[in-house]
Amino acid sequence: MTVAQMRVLFLNTDYPGFLNWLYRNRPGLALRGYEAQLQARNASLFGTADFMSQAMNRLGHTATDIHANNRPLQEAWAAENRRGQAGWLARGASTLHPRLAHRFIPWSPHAERAREILAAQIAAFRPTILYNHDPAGFSSAWLRSVLPRDCAMVAQIASPRGGATDWQAYDLVISSLPNFVSWFAADGVAAEYLPLAFEPRVLAAVPEGRSDIPLSFVGSVSLAHRERLSFLETIAANDDLGLALWGEKSTAIAADSKLHRCHRDEAWGPNMFSLLRRSQLTLNKHIDVSEGFANNMRLFEATGMGACLVTDWKENLAELFEPGKEVVAYRSTEECLDLLRHFSAHEAERMAIAAAGHARCLAEHCYERRMNQLADILQRRFG
Q1: pTM, full prediction
Q2: How does residue 288 score in pLDDT terms, banded at 50, 70 and 90?
Q3: What is the tens place of the pLDDT at every residue in 219-239?
Q4: Per-position DSSP letters for 30-54, written without gaps between them
Q5: What sign does the dihedral 244-250-254-256 (CA atoms) show?
Q6: What letters, b where the CB count within 10 A reaches 16 and e where it falls short, cover 299-316?
Q7: Are residues 216 and 143 in the same domain?
Q8: Are residues 280 and 372 in the same domain?
Q9: CB count, 10 Å around CB of 20?
Q10: Alpha-carbon torsion 271, 368, 323, 354, what sign?
Q11: Number of domains in the chain
Q12: Hey, which residues does 7 pair with through a beta bridge?
């Protein structure tokens, strides 16, 4: 296989909360054809959308996305592709019943029907690279059994590693966390470092508006974010800062927490990007397993949208953004409080940092550049 011949299948699963938001806000979408649903999914701008596949296609490869737990999307594909396929495609529901069109439970990737449709899609696309965004969601042995013999199996991960995943079965693991790359290498698993990225076309899809949000946090708070939760509790206790929090409600937040009064709503896709664009200051606090390394999507989403990002200092942060010039970095909660008050009161300084971070993000951290880097990795490993 040469790089010019790469056929890359990006395998994804989506949060149930996002999927319910997507279909709830687009009446009738679940009853439409595969391409219409896929287009709506990509237009949502959620996660990596089609950012990676489109950048790969522009580089001259052939790439596509599959969202394996999206029940109406996958059933639409099955309904449209049952001719010439195995008899199982005619079994089960080939379309989604209208009564389920606005209220459905996304499949688990382990569901038999989900795997059957995915296997048929793999057979139809014939990938030479499978790039799995959810290695915990799929049995590596099962994936290997349905992939072409010449297909390399690649996983991406930067979240807590599931104990049931057989990492040895993967030909390569990609992570935006250097400590993960070291862990995998120590276990004899081939691993490479690749930071995350921002897609500039989001800027055209999300109109500019007033900078009317003094301080925001947009993201997850869960049991995997204990340090983040404690940090946000302290920020929320300082009423003068006016913290506003967007994200799914979490049982990790105590019933008497002040975060409840800061919580506004969930924020998916364009809504999330709009909030970042409207934020004068926006907070970032990495997941616990990141240890001393900067890596998460908020680094690039916030700077890409032109917000002044206030993020926790990490030993590799300066490789991505220059602290004090392109982002604001804090080493403790107390320092963060001081910085927030300073930049709330000094608009010119805040706007200069936001502009510099935005320029750095667009120059060095876009998907076009990142997929060039990924293609180089794949060429070196499998070319």
Answers
A1: 0.90
A2: confident
A3: 877 666 778 888 998 998 999
A4: GGS-HHHHHHHHHHTT-TTTTHHHH
A5: positive
A6: bbbbbbbbbbbbbbbbee
A7: no
A8: no
A9: 17
A10: negative
A11: 2
A12: 62
